[in-house]
Amino acid sequence: EDQVTQSPEALRLQEGESSSLNCSYTVSGLRGLFWYRQDPGKGPEFLFTLYSAGEEKEKERLKATLTKKESFLHITAPKPEDSATYLCAVQTYSGTYKYIFGTGTRLKVLA
Amino acid sequence: DTGVSQDPRHKITKRGQNVTFRCDPISEHNRLYWYRQTLGQGPEFLTYFQNEAQLEKSRLLSDRFSAERPKGSFSTLEIQRTEQGDSAMYLCASSLGAGFSYNEQFFGPGTRLTVL
Asked: Which residues of B touch A43 (CB under 8 A)?
């Protein structure tokens, strides 16, 4: 069965304390891996798409990487405004498309 | 604003009533998706349309749920005979894609449903 697992469930960082969030997946027919940010009471906001192992994408303090089994979202010198839930999702195809989200990592950055 | 919009933002209903939600996608996007999200969980896929055709339905979408996308523009999601377990955030997303292209989905703000 296709599965997407994110860890840790929650993370508290001091402002400026860099860290990484993990998204591991067991799926067949991976067509893309996506990272989203979600603020409370709002819809997810698209951050990155990664297509193949070895690919990296960067945006401000965020950098996403992809291997054959997992993806990392690295946060460098975070600020309080980076506090949010970060969701990982995969698109798979094995006859039909599937869109599978992980449960997210709740990030809190303290000033 | 050219993003995805959803209406209403909040809906409180009594068990057994029918409710309908509307989603207006980004205008040039041909694909539209519905998800359900409960507290502490990631969005769960319900269904998706390419233009006006409903191409995929999750087994989560019981026969009390129906979705339409007439003319390939806005979409509606109706829940009949609501149950307390239907309480959740209903999210709509849209994307531009064809064939096996990768889909970056853009989400609306969601409709929060509370069934009493």
From this structure: 4, 91, 93, 107-110
Q: Among candidates A95, A90, A47, which has minimal Cα distance to A68?
A: A90
| CB contact (8 A) between residue A42 and residue B100 | no
Find tokens 């039909």 and name the residue: A96
Predicted confidence band of residue B58 (pLDDT cuts 50, 70, 90): confident
| Cα distance between residue B20 and residue B101, in whole Å | 31
pLDDT tens, position by position, B22-51: 999 999 899 999 999 999 899 999 998 999
Question: Residues of B with CB below 8 A from A34's CB?
Answer: 104-105
- B111/A contact by beta carbon, under 8 A: no
Listed residue (B90, B89, B91) closest to B107, CA to CA: B91
Helix (H, G, I), strand (E, B) or coil at A1: coil
Displacement of CA A7 from its chain's centroid (Å): 10
Contacting residues of B for A103, CB less than 8 Å apart:
40-42
8 A C-beta contact, residue A88 and residue A23: yes
How do strand B106-107 and strand B75-79 relate by DSSP bridges?
unpaired
Does the CB of B30 have a partner CB in chain A at under 8 Å?
Answer: no
Residue B24 CA to residue B94 CA, distance in Å, equals 9
Token pair belonging to B56:
């995929």
